[in-house]
Specification:
21% strand, six-stranded antiparallel beta sheet, Beta-Lactamase, 34% helix, alpha+beta
Length: 244
């Protein structure tokens, strides 16, 4: 089904069906992968890629993920900023048009993005915009205090929306979607997603869709229940630390 021309009731039915498919999974990553698979399968005509992220404390990441994050921070000369409590925006589910996009551990740059400082976050336009539009902040991130993810707008899901990935820039004149080679090669037009903090603020999730056609904000918003469904289905898992 094409997102731009599909009937609203059909889209809502597809979104509704995702909830049943992600219930009773053994981990957040397992549920996130099922969600990514389901959404891409339903709207493949309109999508290049679907990705699901969650913040996970660095100390609770699997060894391979920790190694990726350490290497990233070492390359940037800021490994000293890492602590077991550092929230790492981690790729939990991925499905796309290329085979390598269907295994989160094959990701070259998004296995984990450590949210170690306000400066580090602001240097990544898409992440800075996403956190801002979701109404999320990281408390104590620069002061050495507790690093807690919280929502400024309660537990409602926020919306991330880039109408045209080829042209939209931030206040500093940088492309919000900085990977312009990816945008051009795969004809990415609108990028949008939804997410927010869990009720206990232990983590937050983000579901991001990279569309190959222009999707207006009203139509994109019809998929907003995706992140709410994921949070509802995995609240207990996150509370128990069953991320992977």
């Amino acid at each position: 089904m094409k997102l731009s021309s599909g009937a609203s009731d059909q889209i809502r039915e597809h979104v509704k069906g995702v909830r049943a498919r992600i219930e009773n999974r053994r981990s957040l990553a397992s549920a996130a992968q099922v969600l990514a698979d389901s959404v891409f399968s339903a709207f493949e005509e309109s999508l290049a890629l679907v990705r699901v992220f969650s913040t996970v404390p660095f100390g609770e990441l699997p060894g391979a993920n920790q190694g990726f994050v350490r290497s990233l921070m070492r390359d940037r000369g800021v490994e000293r900023l890492l602590s077991p409590a550092t929230p790492v925006l981690s790729l939990m589910g991925t499905k796309g048009a290329r085979p390598e996009w269907n295994d989160r551990m094959q990701s070259r740059g998004h296995v984990g993005i450590p949210l170690v400082s306000a400066e580090f976050i602001s240097a990544i336009p898409m992440i800075a915009r996403l956190l801002s539009e979701f109404g999320l902040v990281i408390e104590g991130i620069d002061g050495g205090g507790s690093r807690i993810v919280r929502s400024k707008v309660g537990n409602l899901s926020g919306m991330f929306y880039v109408a045209d990935a080829r042209t939209e820039t931030d206040l500093q004149g940088r492309h919000v979607i900085s990977a312009q080679d990816f945008v051009e090669e795969h004809c990415v037009r609108t990028v949008f997603g939804f997410g927010g903090a869990y009720m206990l603020e232990r983590s937050c999730v983000a579901v991001i869709l990279f569309a190959t056609e222009s999707i207006d904000a009203e139509r994109a918003r019809e998929l907003a229940p995706l992140s709410s469904a994921l949070k509802a289905a995995t609240l207990r898992l996150v509370d128990q630390g069953r991320f992977f």
